[in-house]
Amino acid sequence: xxxxxxxxxxxxxxxxxxxxxxxxxxxxxxxxxxxxxxxxxxxxxxxxxxxxxxxxxxxxxxxxxxxxxxxxxxxxxxxxxxxxxxxxxxxxxxxxxxxxxxxxxxxxxxxxxxxxxxxxxxxxxxxxxxxxxxxxxxxxxxxxxxxxxxxxxxxxxxxxxxxxxxxxxxxxxxxx
Length: 176
What we know:
By secondary structure, the protein is an alpha+beta fold.
């Protein structure tokens, strides 16, 4: 077996050494790839943390915007309710007859009035000093279901303390 043998121990040592070197190179590659993957995972974690931080900011901003929208809607509802109330105003106050007072009211508001209560005080005064004559008379009436822009019917009240004789006497007094 001498020189010409195809398998020698030195060849086997060379092959083993080469195999060990290949394994070491593979280990270095694995360590390098693992290190690169670790660095890549850290970069991904930093990116996800930044996204999470931005999403939290966006959530807070969205919450603030939602609260502002709710407050604005509440304010608008309050304004509309304030401008759309029922508002009952005198429409007719007629004392031409001097014995009777004719009164009607009208809802000039934006919504119906379920029930409106009206009180009217009538007093006589002496002119020019405006001293009261007699007692003040109070008239009260209620109007049910007065729609927006609707007038009530006329209510007629008798004024006490006037008579045709008094009216005539006052005219004679003025003539003299």
